[in-house]
Specification:
Rossmann fold, alpha/beta, 219 residues, 2 domains
């Protein structure tokens, strides 16, 4: 379980604080994979980043004894001036993986982007970036209790999406997933429960279809 204790998150603006979340007390059960839904700007990525510790609440605390991954998203986790190969090598080193060549080879094989693997990632399309990030995620010899995913399974062709889904489910068979994805079909593929962010609040649903229905009516 992940406990949010009186969480608020705001950003300063010229007209004062803009609240994303305000005074939220909430317990997130982690017995199912959870799809996170909300309109653009509702705070889905902010929520994922706070759970993963890459961004902090403005006030309040997030408490859990679970091993939670860093947020895996298209907008973070890489150095754009470095190549895909260099990023794979860098991630391997900072996590203490000695056989960086093996790590690079696994990511290169998974990504299937050819010579672009040795080009700076800032030149990649979102699809190529997703392929490398997913490859790094799958290649890492880590076991998390909770894997945080922000949109990286949303891009690419159908063949790649199926490949990514199969390998993610196999690699993290015993891991719970919290996923942000604009694709309803992707959410239903990975998740059985749902969490809707609406008007700065959170509403949990045991069934992902109920969450999708509520989200559709609230949007």
């Amino acid at each position: 379980m992940i406990r949010l204790e009186n969480i608020s998150k705001w950003y300063p603006t010229k007209s004062g604080r803009h609240y994303i979340f305000k005074n939220i007390d909430f317990q997130i059960p982690m017995d199912k994979n959870i799809g996170v839904l909300g309109r653009n700007g509702a705070g889905k990525s902010t929520f994922i980043r706070m759970l993963g510790g890459s961004e902090y609440p403005s006030s309040g605390n997030i408490i859990s004894d679970l091993r939670i991954s860093w947020p895996l998203g298209l907008q973070g986790g890489i150095q754009g001036s470095m190549t895909g190969r260099e990023n794979a090598r860098f991630v391997a080193r900072i996590h203490g993986i000695k056989n960086t060549c093996q790590m690079e080879a696994k990511v290169e094989e998974f990504a299937e982007i050819g010579s672009y693997f040795d080009e700076p990632m800032k030149s990649y399309s979102s699809g190529m970036r997703s392929r490398v990030l997913l490859g790094i995620t799958i290649a890492l010899d880590f076991d998390f209790d909770v894997l945080l995913i922000d949109e990286i399974t949303a891009v690419g062709d159908a063949k790649f999406k199926n490949k990514a889904a199969t390998l993610l489910k196999k690699r993290f068979a015993s891991t719970r997933i919290v996923m942000v994805n604009h694709s309803i079909s992707q959410l239903k593929n990975f998740c059985s429960a749902g969490l809707v962010i609406h008007n700065g609040g959170l509403k949990y649903f045991e069934n992902i279809d109920d969450a999708i229905s509520y989200y559709g009516n609230a949007s």
